[in-house]
Write a structure and sequence with these properties.
The structure is a homodimer of 246-residue chains.
Chain A (H helix, E strand, L loop, with lengths): L10 E4 L3 H13 L3 E13 L3 E13 L5 E4 L8 E3 L4 E6 L5 E7 L4 E16 L8 E3 L2 H10 L9 E9 L2 E8 L5 E6 L6 H18 L5 E7 L4 H10 L2 E4 L4
Parallel strand pairs in A: 12-13, 13-14
Antiparallel strand pairs in A: 1-8, 2-3, 2-8, 3-4, 4-5, 6-7, 7-8, 10-11, 11-12
Helix pairs in contact in A: 3-4
The structure holds a DNA duplex (15 and 15 nucleotides).
Amino acid sequence: MTASGRRSTDVTLRNPSAEEALSTVEDGVAAGALVTLFGRCTVDYDGRAASQLGPGDRHVMLKPDGTILVHTDEGQKPVNWQPPGCTHEPSLTDAGDLRVRSVRSSPDEELVVTFERVDQVSAFDLTDGHDLAVEGTEEDLRQRILADPSLVEDGFTPLATERETPAGAVDIYGEDAAGRTVVVELKRRRVGPDAVGQLDRYVGALERSLHADASVRGLLIAPSVTQRAERLLEKKGLEFVALSPP
Amino acid sequence: MTASGRRSTDVTLRNPSAEEALSTVEDGVAAGALVTLFGRCTVDYDGRAASQLGPGDRHVMLKPDGTILVHTDEGQKPVNWQPPGCTHEPSLTDAGDLRVRSVRSSPDEELVVTFERVDQVSAFDLTDGHDLAVEGTEEDLRQRILADPSLVEDGFTPLATERETPAGAVDIYGEDAAGRTVVVELKRRRVGPDAVGQLDRYVGALERSLHADASVRGLLIAPSVTQRAERLLEKKGLEFVALSPP
DNA sequence: CAATGGATATCGGGC
DNA sequence: GCCCGATGTCCATTG
């Protein structure tokens, strides 16, 4: 029932018996392959939270790094999952059905997928030599500003990035044309009240940290702000500059 | 090269030609099936941000709701994706390779996956009649408190949930044994400074909203707090009660 | 449509 | 390991 693949370890079985599916999953996990299953299954999760999922047709993916993902036909997020670090433990239930139990510690968690029917099981050895290159991140926005500080305002001089304060690290720390300290918080997209609170914490921490009488300007830089965030900025005496990642 | 499946629309091809793979993807997408591919591909994304990914062996999933996911052998998150709402457009490149382009508007985005080799293509019709039942959420914590308000403190009386303020909706709004207004912010897990800032915004908004002289107590309820959050609570004059979801 | 905040968020960096 | 903040976050809910 196997078909020849690019690698000897690559396997696909259609409508396998539970025993055949078990062997394929066991071998694939042992070989460090990415294993996928189509079939009708139930899913039970217990850990940080707990959940139960009744029988349905789903797609299950086991990664060699310990990730497990259960996908239905809808949504970007898996309906159930475990992050990397799990141990995949395939077995047969008392009823003779395929079961995959993925467990980890700290936190103690387990995900159990029990198949009443397996339509397909595959195991492929994936190697990926390339890293993803993303543009348009907050880091890109920072580089844009450091390359041309006048984008913030005329006379702005960056002095440090990721400068530590008791409240956390400030994105860009600098001073304005008048020599006043400026704290800049960057966001790659439109921001709400949370970002204003974050900036306010940094400004407060720096004012206490520098001198009792120090006046620190807080600047939020983002493509735009929500109305509630705008009111909060005003209330807190903070400023906003509209700027997007390159 | 097809194998018989549970449904006539279910298909799997091993090492298909680009033309065979194209037909399978086209038919699967048209039939509302969940389509998966194993193969060596490049991925290009352009939209809210932009990214490029060089050639590598990956797993690609196309869902009938317009979702596309590209997974490598590592990590829980797909290396590239599009959320539901896309249109999947399979085609052949000038070089005769399989290409899948998934596009949507608002925001204008596209993800292009180009295969130099397809090891497997599958199409399965998934139907999932069951909903996920999760326990241990913030909502469960709220129910626990409403069922026994003394868990917050003796004499606490909940008056409303999701009560609106100019700063947003308060999780639980009530009063203490002395008749003072109490704002409760719930978190299902250990919290950092952001949750304190959120609670502080609600307290401030209510104080302004009620009277000029109104004194409002702010209570953060969570399993635990970080040290920085604890200091911020103290600085803001807010309180903490340790409590976990049931 | 925007806005707001939760999530079993995940992920990476720093300590 | 905890802590903290970014994320192309996704997602449901509400206006």
